[in-house]
Automatic annotation (TrEMBL):
GO biological process: methylation
InterPro entries: MethylDNA_cys_MeTrfase_DNA-bd, MethylDNA_cys_MeTrfase_DNAb, MGMT_N_sf, WH-like_DNA-bd_sf
Lineage top rank: taxon: Bacteria
Top-level EC class: transferase
Name of the protein: Methylated-DNA--[protein]-cysteine S-methyltransferase
Domain Methylated-DNA-[protein]-cysteine S-methyltransferase DNA binding as annotated: residue spans: 78-162
SUPFAM superfamilies with a match to the protein in the record: Methylated DNA-protein cysteine methyltransferase domain, Methylated DNA-protein cysteine methyltransferase, C-terminal domain
The organism of origin for this protein: Herminiimonas aquatilis
EC number: 2.1.1.63
Length: 165
């Protein structure tokens, strides 16, 4: 497959309707999933862990009800992990606000937004299901309404059949 020079950072790249998803692995664990723009082309998996992750990403892209089961590297602070656990409980087709999650973890909406943006495993930890009280909100530390990352968030919510997207 044709690849960009930056594709060497990833153990696999899965092409999507919105661009691509880069998969990084380390020590038989998924180290990171990254939303990539369309100039990244697919890359075959180079190890069993990236193969498993790529297949699961593809299954999610075919079926938004697919449940991920991947060996994730333990990353993040205790607070981030608490926020990510709360986000992981949001079912497909639903969204909660940063304030909703903040109340669940006894914190502030802005801190929840920062933890969302620091998520190493988007899709697996579905931070796209967290929105602002007055609208879509940002995504992956980006808030440009016409930008790539917010466009990915819109695509994911539409894919999961969330009303209004």
């Amino acid at each position: 497959m044709k690849q960009t020079s930056s594709s060497s950072l990833f153990a696999a790249i899965v092409e999507t309707s919105f661009g691509a998803i880069g998969i990084r692995t380390e020590d038989h664990l998924v180290r990171e999933l990254v939303y990539l723009p369309a100039n990244f082309q697919g890359k075959d998996a180079i190890d069993p862990t990236s193969e498993r992750a790529a297949r699961q990403v593809e299954r999610y892209l075919d079926d938004p009800d697919f449940q991920f089961d991947l060996p994730l590297m333990p990353l993040g602070t205790a607070f981030q992990q608490k926020v990510w656990a709360a986000i992981s409980e949001i079912p497909r087709g639903k969204v909660l606000t940063y304030g909703d999650i903040a109340r669940r973890v006894q914190s502030a909406p802005r801190a929840v937004g920062q933890a969302c943006g620091a998520n190493w495993f988007p899709l697996v930890i579905p931070c796209h299901r967290v929105t602002a009280a007055g609208g879509l909100g940002g995504f992956a530390h980006q808030d440009d309404e016409t930008g790539f990352h917010v466009g990915v968030k819109r695509w994911l919510l539409a894919h999961e059949k969330v009303a209004g997207y």
